[in-house]
Write a structure and sequence with these properties.
Helix content: over 70%
CATH superfamily: Rhodopsin 7-helix transmembrane proteins
Distance between the termini: 76 Å
Number of helices: 12
CATH architecture: Up-down Bundle
Strand content: under 5%
Structural class: mainly alpha
Strand order of the largest sheet: 1-2
Shape: globular
CATH topology: Rhopdopsin 7-helix transmembrane proteins
Largest sheet: 2 strands, antiparallel
Amino acid sequence: MEDLEETLFEEFENYSYALEYYSPGTDLEEKAHLGVVHWVSLVLYCLAFVLGIPGNAIVIWFTGFKWKKTVTTLWFLNLAIADFIFLLFLPLYISYVAMSFHWPFGICLCKANAFIAQLNMFASVFFLTVISLDRYIYLIHPVLSHRYRTLRNSLVIVIVVWLLASLMGGPALFFRETLESNNRTVCYNNFHEQDPDLVLMRHHVLTWVKVIVGYLFPLLTMSICYLSLIFKVKKRSILASSKHFWTILAVVLAFLICWTPYHLFSIWELTIHHNSYFHQVLQAGIPLSTGLAFLNSCLNPILYVLISKKFQVRFRASVAEILKYTLWEVSCSGTVSEPLRNSETKNLCLLETAQ
């Protein structure tokens, strides 16, 4: 039984989902090289968490609670929610890598962590696709947009996107398992280890579904939408002055830059079933491409601040409003020195007292 477990452990350590790359035959120099690569990827994971949690929380707070509810803010709200949920689970993944790919958190969190990662990937790309289609219809077909572009219809689309993303991430809940050997546990995809042909078929199907549905089809859709906007909108000033066009375009480009290497290495990884010639390249490339993909979850809030002037204005106005309200509350409570109580604050306090 122990020999069987050891064989399975060595077999599945090649899969990116297990993220176990140190095989028994790996020499010390190669282990040192891969160790550096994995620590670099670990830095990317930590950077995504440190920047992404507060950034997406701010976007969720303002788009969900402070700003007027519009179709566009609804899209960005759900995009931030998808990233935020994923980042909440990222410390588990960081711990997994930091402990040399040992998973001590049990099978339930193994499944949940993989599911959340897939849910985030599909939900993000689906919402980006919806946003691109929304921009195209809004600018090219204004009559159709005015008739059907409502909050109610948008909520229906949001629900459909989340259900579809959950469906696409569902296989992680089914196949993800843990395997213990030599006091070490890995979290991997168990594609039915007793049947090599079934393992090969399932790995190919899930990988190509992920690439086609979660990357190629959305990429084609977004490319058509934005190219059509560029060529069909004759007056460039209309396009340039579009409130959200350049922000959305930057978000889409960031998604492509971050996720393209991940999908390329996922396809490349399929060759591991036939030969191990590129094994060392995959050992180094898969963790780095995964870290780059994770980094996308913290980029969107940064892009909003750097590119969208409207976001900057609304953000500053919201912060100023919060600070003003806080000052008013403290002033009314009598904890602020008298010089700070200007006439406007006194009037607000009198109104509050009258009520």
